[in-house]
Amino acid sequence: MKKVDEHSTVTANSFPSRGKVRMGAIKIKVCGMRDPENISGVIKALPDYLGFIFYPKSKRFVGFEPSPEVLAEIPVSVKKVGVFVNETLEKVMEICQSWNLDIAQLHGQETPEYCRQIRNSGITVFKAFSVDEQFDFELLETYSGECDYFLFDTKGRLPGGTGQKFNWQLLENYKLNVPFFLSGGIGPDDLNTISEFSHPQLFGIDINSGFEISPALKDVEKVKKFIAKIRV
Question: 78, 202, 204, 229 — which has fewest CB within 10 A?
């Protein structure tokens, strides 16, 4: 496979021709939420998942204490995702219970055993991996029975999003059966690019900073238009 710089612009022509994604089947996760009024607006766009970041170093840190104002805005149809980075197992369990989270998304160096313990408690597990040209997809084999979904993001200096895309063609090296979310620098203008990308395990799209007015505050109209076009 020809190597492409990980920060190069991703275009539809970058992808192998394997048929287009059935756009309406793609799930949408809106991550980095915090403001109740903003959440109320985003909910009207009918996302499948909302993400809340429980990593204090993040500009989108929602706080550890549960917010009744935030939780009151979220219907049962929208799954709540807690994003954690190398947090203690006990703290993750505590927050998942107090926030009534459906999913724990793990962005650190969490082990397969760590993922298994969370999953065995009845919580769905998303395990995030930062991808660049040197990423070894064989490392995922030990996680394949311990996680419900993978999330592939762009490798950066620090944990979490970089606001940049990685070279999605690298996912041709992903051969496991665990479905995945595509993340990293996805914005309102990427619909055509997404429609041209094809992988049998693509399950969802994770959007965040590309739709923001400021950290943790989404442009509701951009989110609505994006999701509406995905659902067509």
Answer: 229
**Stated pTM of the model:** 0.88
Q: Has 189 been annotated as catalytic?
A: no
Parallel, antiparallel or unpaired: strands 202-207 and 27-30? parallel
- Print pLDDT tens along the chain (232 aa): 333 333 333 433 343 334 445 777 999 999 999 999 999 999 999 999 999 999 999 999 999 999 999 999 999 999 999 999 999 999 999 999 999 999 999 999 999 999 999 999 999 999 999 999 999 999 999 999 999 999 999 976 555 555 678 999 999 999 999 999 999 999 999 999 999 999 999 999 999 999 999 999 999 999 999 999 998 8
The catalytic position among 96, 147, 153, 190 is 153
What domains, with CATH codes, occur in the chain? 12-231 (3.20.20.70)
Cα–Cα separations (whole angstroms), residue 170 to 6, 30, 31, 115, 126:
9, 24, 24, 25, 20
Is 5 annotated as catalytic?
A: no
Selection from 92, 166, 97, 99 nearest residue 133 by Cα: 166
